[in-house]
Amino acid sequence: MKKVLLVDDDVDFCEATKLLLDSKGYDVFLAHDGKAGLEKALAAQPDLVILDVMMPEMNGYDVCVVLKADAELKKIPVILLTAVDQHMFKTTYTNVMGCMTEADDYIAKPVEPEELVKRMEELLPKN
After folding, report:
1. Would you say residue 125 lies in a domain?
2. Counting runs of H as helices and runs of E as strands, what totals does the chain give?
3. I need a labelling partner for 49 at 20 to 30 A (CA). Which of 73, 91, 105, 108 fits?
4. Rounded mean pLDDT of 86-92?
5. In angstroms, rounded to a whole number, what is the distance separating the alpha carbons of residues 52 and 2?
6. How far is CA 7 from CA 18, 89, 127, in A?
7. CA dihedral over 74, 105, 45, 11, signed as positive or negative
8. What is the pTM of this model?
9. For the chain, what is the domain count?
């Protein structure tokens, strides 16, 4: 069973996405801020990480940079899942910042559930 870590401060989004991924046979771990997400990534060694960008404690861009700099964790595919486009004029986060993180994919919210699963499956190891 593939392990997926979902890090997002939107608790409702996390619970709904967890239900979807559970139904697809994934073992899902949740964290609601970047710092907790990084700690869970280190502890759980997931097969894939889905990171929101705009979060408390540590934003998703910074978490991704730390993950990709770690010798053990850098092999884990990371999807940045964010509403930055919707908040472009209200936030200091930018799409360019996302491109600089070495994330493996970048998906704008809202995302259709089946699209998220499809993009995850493209990144997950096939074994």
Report:
1. no
2. 5, 5
3. 91
4. 45
5. 20
6. 11, 24, 24
7. positive
8. 0.87
9. 1
